[in-house]
Design a protein that fits this description.
By secondary structure, chain A is mostly helical. Chain A has one domain: Orthogonal Bundle (ABC transporter involved in vitamin B12 uptake, BtuC), CATH 1.10.3470. In chain A, 74% of the residues lie in helices and 1% in strands. Chain A is globular, with a radius of gyration of 19 Å. At the A-B interface, helix 5, helix 10 and helix 12 of A face helix 4, helix 9 and helix 11 of B.
Amino acid sequence: MAGSYRMIEGVVVLAAMVAAGPVVALLSGDVYQLAVFERALIYAVAAASLNMILGFGGMVSFGHAVYLGIGCYATGILANADILPIWIQLPVVMAASALVALFIGLIVLRTSGVYFIMITLALAQIFYYLAVSSSYFGGDDGMVIYERTTLLWGYDPFDSWHFYFFVAGITVLCLLLVNHLVRSDFGRRLVACRENPTRATALGFNVFAVRLVGFVLAGVICGIAGFLLANQAEFATPGYASWQRSGELLVIVILGGVGTRFGPVYGAFAFVLLESVLAGYTTHWPILFGPFLICVVMFFHKGLAGLVDRLIPGRARAG
Amino acid sequence: MASLFAEQLLNGIQLGILLFLIAAGLTLIFGVMDFINLSHGSLFMLGAYFSVLFQALTGSFFLSVGLAAIAVFGLGMLLEVLLVRNLYARSHLDHVLVTYGLILIANESVILIWGSVPIFSGVPEALAGQIPLPFGIDYPAYRMLVIAVGGLVGLGLFLLIQKTRVGMLVRAGATNRVMVSILGVNISLLYALVFALGALLAGLAGAMAGPILSVQPGMGEAVLILSFVVVVIGGLGSIRGALLAAMIVGLIDTMGRAFLRDILSAFFSPQVAGEAGPALASMLVYILMALILFFRPEGLLPLQRRH
């Protein structure tokens, strides 16, 4: 019973997430509205990957945007070398993100707590400055990406609708993958290593290895978000790997509800849509967005996902 | 070359002193209240803006720096009482979200009031010149004053923490928070004072940095990240660690930016050096931090903590 309830909830949330953009675009008669929702979807993927290690593994990465940057640059470099098929681009992006995540993970997983937060930041900054100084790839100014990824005959990457469903399709696949990982044996081991590393070790788990696998998987999935971002923005800039971007990802995850199934989706949509709606009214939108964030912390338990839970009758949980 | 080196050395010390003023508050707030305050950089920025404001009102630079620091002290007190004290029992992640919200509010308020164009407040005329130092070195008088004032404030802070009753309570709070409250200390007043003191130091640093940097929205964030690096390298909650780390970070950052390019060009082609030099200089601080945390995960001078 509970299982089927979860399933229905999942289908409803994912369907609403995918349908929101087209509905708004059709109602307003403005296909460019799709771009806003594409950004929300991409952020949802990145936030879901961060939520996997943060919410379930207890690893607060303050440098998660680095994989957004890696994915973006890898895609851009391939695209500008005229290597466009997704069958080549995506594996390269995933391999590049995995390598970087492995390198970072091997260092940062020796620390914990606030030190973990800061050392992930430090390593991400090193990659950020690497991107800033690489004049071959545009340096500080970034790099224009001239061609979008190709998929199959009949898919036109520059058609707004085609491209929207390309982004939405990959987003849904990534979210399903994250949900599956979190609910799998591996996900439970990840939680066990967060809750009680000593006991997990006693049960025969290699805590370091479990965390490292989680860290690398999250990096790879965030790299895919970077791949989508490169296609969406048609631009790669060091800014995508900046600490501000990492901070935004953290804010999205916390806003949505840490360690909840659909928190990253709620957080990403709230963040991107509020930003775009408020920015339509006033350029000083942060002055409204700031108090909103504070209110979420002060009044909702478990972020927006907690609010959604409370709105559904019979779902309110204590604590 | 020698005078250039000495000048950069002093610049490094001056940056280190500013970083120490900010990091000292940050590390105290973390050590005593276990609170992560991302908006600490915003207090630095507000210090700079308040100083500009008071300078226009009073016409005196020195008076305006003092008034700005006091104003930020008051603001910090208000912030603690109205908002921050409700968050001590919450998770670090909630602290991050709320103080991120505060950064947005602070930056946007500053843009609304003063506009987004950087303000160059300029060095007061009496201090615009250079002062001669031993060995034939000339150094800007204003920067020398920043070093002196920052050093004095740092010394005062050290005496306050090490030699007074309030300081003893602060140290006790950083070591064992629960025990201090059990002993009947008015812990909520102590927390408010520590938070406001941290704000005062950040505001003072901002007011003094105003003439050196340009006063603009978002100026707090760059400093915030460096200060967090200082706090973590020094060891969380440790004032002595913050002082040591601030000097190391200030010197390494300044020296790297000044000389790394020339050092590299001795080994590589000018083109490679010109490209890698500035990049490596920006990375130096973070490489240092990663190395220190790798070998000493608790920082250089960690507190002996008991919970």
